[in-house]
Amino acid sequence: MNLEVITLVENDTGRAQTLASEQPDRIGRLVIASCEAFDNYPPGLPGRSVALFAKIPGGLAMLALQMRLRFIRRFPLAFGWMAKRPIPDKVMDEWLQPFISNPAIRKDLERYLKAANQNEMVHAAEVLRSFNRPSLVIWAAEDRVMSKVHGRRLAELLPQGRYMEIPDSYTLIPED
Hints:
Elements: E1 6-12, H1 15-22, E2 27-35, H2 44-55, H3 59-67, H4 89-101, H5 103-115, H6 118-127, E3 135-140, H7 148-157, E4 161-166
Helix pairs in contact: 1-6, 2-3, 2-5, 3-4
């Protein structure tokens, strides 16, 4: 199937901004929900913590061992500030199992984090000024990882941007 014009929806990562800035002709509508933007990259305390682990030899393997302990997942350095309510263990297990069990996935994450460049997100946001298609920016009203100021700025940058907040939620809006 060849999708020509899509509605692109993202939550948590800022990759939709990058894609919209690089291939705007493929995107008919854009929905951005609480995500990394501007200089918040890697995002917030959890993102910076994982990036720090990636700089330490064996750090991501050590982090993977810690993520086996379910109570640690609720710490602010992990997922504690990402969802207002506890994410079901079964869901978290499914998300984390590849990271915990597969060294190749940890190596890919390490390469990604070492290549992380704040300027990339700043540039992608600026290019959104020319994305003249319907765009909705949705932000978690109580987000502690992704700045609401960034959400409003993204909506203002987009020529057809609209901003709204989801009450009683953190970054991972669908989980709250």
